[in-house]
Design goal:
Layout: E1 2-8, H1 15-23, E2 30-37, H2 43-53, E3 58-63, H3 69-79, E4 84-89, E5 93-94, H4 98-113, E6 119-128, E7 134-136, H5 139-143, H6 152-157, E8 167-169, H7 170-179, H8 191-202, E9 204-216, H9 231-237, H10 240-261, H11 267-277, H12 284-293, H13 301-310
Parallel strand pairs: 1-2, 1-4, 2-3, 6-9
Antiparallel strand pairs: 4-8, 5-9, 6-7, 6-8
Length: 311
């Protein structure tokens, strides 16, 4: 069984279409767990109307506002008890083979590595406008991300795992629950990045090189797709304050990761994390040397350039 964990907040415009795309999947071995994060619109009413038609497939949890999609998803992770869990935003649209393609890759990895190893599988996705008209076939190409960047060193520097494409196995879910540092939550940038770091530290990350969903861009996305070839993006990456702030946030997240895994991860992973955490204390030349030598590089040329200039 697969738990599909959907975070909802004021999603009345799009949540019905998203749930319909899940109901239309070619794999039926799933249960949808929706956590509404204190919506003030008609989201809950819309979800309840759908639940009346599919009472055995959907569970709704209504909660007070947790303050962020990140916090909402971490609460959802605690609710999952199935063999696998997938993550779902309320405003996207899943292609009918999303679950089956992802599950196939997960099963291949478990057969090779064992179900006791923490595993994460993610996929490519297509970018769409608010009416679901496709604007880019591949999110990875649109964002200038490296599909091969799955190592811990690369993920410490930049995330390329989009949460709404992710499936994790029970071992990774349990690792997340067991090691989640509640008092250090502010150090975690996003749930998908954190899960990717856990998987690359203590298990493996797998990738399906096919779009499995439409990533709807409507102007109010908490995180969205950015054209890395646009002048606006290039200028943003080459502004010292913004780039330095983003880099500092990755070092704080890495320090949080080290604290969370110091009694769990192996020595190689801990050494990789520790070297990354020490970068801010080094001089300029040493920083650049460390980034290049240990492959802590961002994934597109403009981001990498900004990283090396303002590290």
């Amino acid at each position: 069984m697969i738990d599909i964990l959907m975070a909802v907040f004021n999603g009345e415009k799009y949540v019905k279409k998203q749930i319909e795309s899940i109901l239309a999947q070619d794999c039926s071995d799933w249960h949808l767990i929706i956590r509404d994060d204190g919506s003030t619109d008609k989201s809950v009413q819309i979800i309840c109307d759908i639940m009346k038609q599919h009472p055995d497939k959907i569970t709704l949890v209504c909660a007070e506002n947790s303050g962020s999609a990140k916090a909402n998803f971490f609460e959802l992770i605690k609710l999952s008890e199935s063999e696998y869990a997938m993550f779902c935003d309320h405003d996207d649209f899943w292609l009918e083979n999303k679950i089956s393609l992802t599950l196939k890759r997960m099963k291949q990895m478990e057969k090779k590595l064992g179900a006791q190893m923490p595993l994460l599988v993610h996929t490519d996705l297509s970018v769409a406008d608010k009416k679901l008209n496709k604007t880019a076939q591949s999110f990875f190409e649109f964002q200038g991300l490296d599909k091969r960047a799955r190592s811990l060193s690369r993920l410490l520097a930049q995330n390329n795992i989009t949460g709404c494409t992710v499936m994790i196995n029970k071992a990774l879910r349990q690792l997340c629950v067991d090691t989640f540092p509640t008092e250090l939550e502010s150090g975690i940038l996003m749930h998908d990045w954190w899960l990717g770091l856990l998987a690359s530290s203590c298990g493996k990350v797998g990738f399906v090189d096919k779009p499995t969903m439409l990533y709807r861009q409507h102007g109010n996305n908490e995180l969205g797709a950015v054209n890395t070839k646009s002048p606006k993006y290039i200028i943003k990456c080459l502004k010292q304050r913004k780039t330095s702030g983003r880099l500092n946030a990755t070092y704080i997240q890495a320090a949080t990761l080290y604290t969370a895994l110091k009694d769990t991860a192996d020595s190689d992973a801990l050494d990789t994390i520790k070297k990354f955490v020490t970068i801010p204390a080094q001089n300029k030349f040493a920083k650049i040397h460390t980034i290049i030598k240990y492959d802590y590089k961002k994934q597109n040329f403009v981001s990498l350039l900004g990283q090396l200039i303002f590290c």
